[in-house]
Amino acid sequence: MIFSHISDTHLGFVQYYSEEREQDVYSAFDQAIDTSISDHVDFVIFAGDIFHIPNPSGKAILVLANALKRLKQTSIDSFFILGEHDISRIRATPVPFVYHNLEFSKYIGNGKPLQYKDVLIVGYDKRRKNEIHTFENDFAKIDAEAKNHAGHKILVLHQGITEVNKFAGELNSSDLPKNFTYYAMGHLHERELKKFSNLGGPLAYPGSIELTSSEGIKETQKGFYEVDISSSEAKPTWIKIDTRPQLSVKTYYQNLKKEVDLLSEKLKTFEKKPVIEIKIHGENIETDLVQSQIARLHPLALRCFWKAVRPEENNGSTFMERPAKIDDEMFKLAKDILNSEPWANFAIRDLLPLLSANQIDEANHLVIENFERFKKEKKNVN
Q1: Under the phi-then-psi rule, with left for phi > 0, alpha for psi from -120 to 50, and beta for the rest, what region is 48?
Q2: Cα(151)–Cα(117) distance, integer angstroms
């Protein structure tokens, strides 16, 4: 038996206000679905952040509907949990539930064990930092059930594991139930495959299927896992998706013309026009001269950005490494200033992590999504 483990598809994500970038996401998603069908997988697991925002566009909804329909037509079942991008703080029913109600896909994010043939599958929706402690009792219950199950056991989560990424860590591997044979993770956008001695099987993050704003511009590979559970051990295989190239180039100001010459030749070899970022190091950088050189790349690239990097600049990463107790102090301060615990919680627990990770698009969506609720609350207070 083989299943596909797909995560962080972010359907509806539009980068640079570009229709091409929106279509890139749909193309990557369709590749994952079509490959799963052609490889005759038995089922598909979606490990959260199916959509980029809780109120996705009609196009994004249709793309998912068509994909699930193709799976159904080939007798491939699918299961999903919700990530933070799928869950609205004001909408009662998340959009993916529509597909569950239509029996196109099965929702498993409520923690209720589901037996599919001889496989036990348990999933949990994304839990925020102040809810993480609730996992302890839930994990204890399902671990006991998994221990007594003879076949494979799959746990589906949309959380960060500290040993995999210390900045995004919300749980330690030692917090997880021990008796599962595969840990199907979502949330982290980089591909990761780990084995921990205290866990019963591999822990895997497929990563996002396309680069998003939070990841920056870089050369990378995107894809998903196909997991063979025909034997007693779960064996994940990485399946690469064909995505638009993205290049981040560093050069010195005095070498810019030479670098642009080299890039021009390289870009001609790509089937898809790439996204390019050029970091120019030096002092006394003349904007007009830089732009005249960068203009030579525009016909060959979908987008081309440049940034002057001066010696005194730093990357701001110190703020990302702040201890949790600083967040607690900032929460207390925000609560005093705003005179509202929900507003302070929103500002420090929800909005600040996005801003500190440079996830500007996600922060904008979060503010817009909560604007009417906060406005109504303020009116009631007054």
Answers
A1: left
A2: 9
- Give residue-wise pLDDT tens across range 277-312: 999 998 888 989 999 999 999 999 999 998 888 765
Q: Which pTM value belongs to this model?
A: 0.80
Strands (E), 178-302: 182-185, 192-194, 203-205, 222-228, 235-241, 246-252, 275-281
Distances (CA, A) of 198 to 123, 174, 194, 232: 20, 7, 12, 17
pLDDT at 137 over 50: yes
* CB-CB contact of 223 with 212 (8 Å): no
Options 3.60.40.10, 3.60.21.10, 3.40.640.10, 3.40.50.300; CATH of 2-241: 3.60.21.10
Each residue of 329-347: b (16+ CB within 10 Å) or e? Answer: ebbeebbeeeebeebbbbb
In whole angstroms, what is the distance from residue 314 CA to residue 369 CA? 32
* CA R_g for the chain: 23
